[in-house]
Amino acid sequence: MRWINQSLFRRLLISYLFIFIIGFGLIGVMIATSSQDYITEAKRQEMLQQATSINAAIMDFNKVTPEVENVLQQIGQFTGLNIWLFNDEGEIVATASRQDVFVGEPISDDIINEVLQGKNRIEVMRIEEEERPMLSVIVPWGTNEKIHGGIVLHSPISGINTTVANIREIVLWGIISGLVIVSILVSYLSWTISKPLKKLDEAANEIALGNYSKRVNLHESFPDEISALVSSFNRMAEKIDKIENERDLLEQRRQDFIANISHELRTPLTAMKGFLEALQDGLVKDPESQKKYFEIMHRETEYLNHLVNDLMDLIKLEKQEISLDLYYVHLDEVLKKVSLNLEPTMKERGNKFVLEIPDDSPAIIGDSIRLEEIFKNIIHNANKFTENGTITTKMKYESESVTVQIKDTGIGIPSYDLKRIWERFFKVDRVRSKKGRGTGLGLAIVKELVKLHHGDINVESELGKGTTFTIRFPTHMQQLKDS
């Protein structure tokens, strides 16, 4: 039975066919039995009426006459029945057949007694001269006042059995035809259920093997419940595929992070190790050279410290573990402070800083220290990659926001690198090789800080012509609504 349980199609098909066979088998048996009872009873009633008609024709005769025999023969030929006529002593005195083989034969006493009492009798008789059992109907011959004997009508049971057998054959063929039709319908029904389930099983196995893009195509022939199941499965597969892609992306970022942090740490640590070994081995004895070595190691230490601080800040920002110290802040004051701090560095690179601030700029709700960090990072990058150019910071007020635009005339960023500048440790290769070092975390921190202030930031750049960062902050009323 295991081969049945392993296939839903076979289980459904066999179950439906079993139910059909049992159900229609019982119905067939009931029809055949009921038909036999009905036909037998109808035959009895018919013979009883015929016997009554014969009695009506001969009831005025108290003995057998040629006229009585003629009536019996005519009715016998017309109905095909065997007819006996017996007297009150139980002796057969006439038959419907011209061969009087039964004339003079006796009738059983119990039949005679019932008939003489005016009762009818119906029974199945076995007559020695007849090989077939006979259905017999016996009625009194005469009137209620005077009973002369009895009339017996015989009809072979085989005729009734043949009729019943024909009905049974018709019922059987009906069941067989129904079985074929039901088999086809059930096969189709089972197929419409088992086929999509098999496809779901195949798709689930492929997903289990790592093919997360596998989907099951919906078909209009699927039942509604199966279609809903397929839709749910596809949604689940899409979710798994998305999660897996995100996991792969996170894994790639993790690997990139490890590679980047290893690179960023290895360079200063290697330099510091070399200088320390030279000093320890006494290879550098000149005080000026020693001082220079110490300055380099101090600078590398400061770089490592800055790298670790930036990395910790970024991690806290991404985990939303940093809370802002919010109060009303005027961005013009923040921008003036940042420009004043970076002014010496700008002069070293021959850059001109232009600050355009409207007279009635509104305040926003923010953290002045974090806002200063945002603008310092962007303006510092603009200064680092611009030489003998102009850095313009323009502030503009709109109905529900304050926009700050920082534009430089530097070397610009390639279009294929624009989307990646917000990634941790990402540095444009040509910038890394030609310009001053940085941690590669500044813009990632800037993006998280802008998001924390309910703002947005975007960048436009053209290689060789410069870069423009645009930052939008909601005004304090709108920001309170967003919060």
UniProtKB/TrEMBL annotation:
<dbReference type="GO" id="GO:0016301">
    <property type="term" value="F:kinase activity"/>
</dbReference>
<dbReference type="Pfam" id="PF00512">
    <property type="entry name" value="HisKA"/>
</dbReference>
<keyword id="KW-0808">Transferase</keyword>
<keyword id="KW-1133">Transmembrane helix</keyword>
<keyword id="KW-0472">Membrane</keyword>
<dbReference type="InterPro" id="IPR004358">
    <property type="entry name" value="Sig_transdc_His_kin-like_C"/>
</dbReference>
<keyword id="KW-0175">Coiled coil</keyword>
<keyword id="KW-0547">Nucleotide-binding</keyword>
<dbReference type="Pfam" id="PF00672">
    <property type="entry name" value="HAMP"/>
</dbReference>
<feature type="coiled-coil region">
    <location>
        <begin position="233"/>
        <end position="260"/>
    </location>
</feature>
<keyword id="KW-1003">Cell membrane</keyword>
<dbReference type="InterPro" id="IPR050398">
    <property type="entry name" value="HssS/ArlS-like"/>
</dbReference>
<keyword id="KW-0597">Phosphoprotein</keyword>
<dbReference type="InterPro" id="IPR005467">
    <property type="entry name" value="His_kinase_dom"/>
</dbReference>
<dbReference type="InterPro" id="IPR003660">
    <property type="entry name" value="HAMP_dom"/>
</dbReference>
<keyword id="KW-0067">ATP-binding</keyword>
<protein>
    <recommendedName>
        <fullName>histidine kinase</fullName>
        <ecNumber>2.7.13.3</ecNumber>
    </recommendedName>
</protein>
<dbReference type="InterPro" id="IPR036890">
    <property type="entry name" value="HATPase_C_sf"/>
</dbReference>
<keyword id="KW-0812">Transmembrane</keyword>
<feature type="transmembrane region" description="Helical">
    <location>
        <begin position="12"/>
        <end position="32"/>
    </location>
</feature>
<dbReference type="InterPro" id="IPR036097">
    <property type="entry name" value="HisK_dim/P_sf"/>
</dbReference>
<keyword id="KW-0902">Two-component regulatory system</keyword>
<dbReference type="InterPro" id="IPR003594">
    <property type="entry name" value="HATPase_dom"/>
</dbReference>
<feature type="transmembrane region" description="Helical">
    <location>
        <begin position="170"/>
        <end position="191"/>
    </location>
</feature>
<feature type="domain" description="Histidine kinase">
    <location>
        <begin position="260"/>
        <end position="477"/>
    </location>
</feature>
<dbReference type="InterPro" id="IPR003661">
    <property type="entry name" value="HisK_dim/P_dom"/>
</dbReference>
<dbReference type="Pfam" id="PF02518">
    <property type="entry name" value="HATPase_c"/>
</dbReference>
<keyword id="KW-0418">Kinase</keyword>
<feature type="domain" description="HAMP">
    <location>
        <begin position="191"/>
        <end position="245"/>
    </location>
</feature>
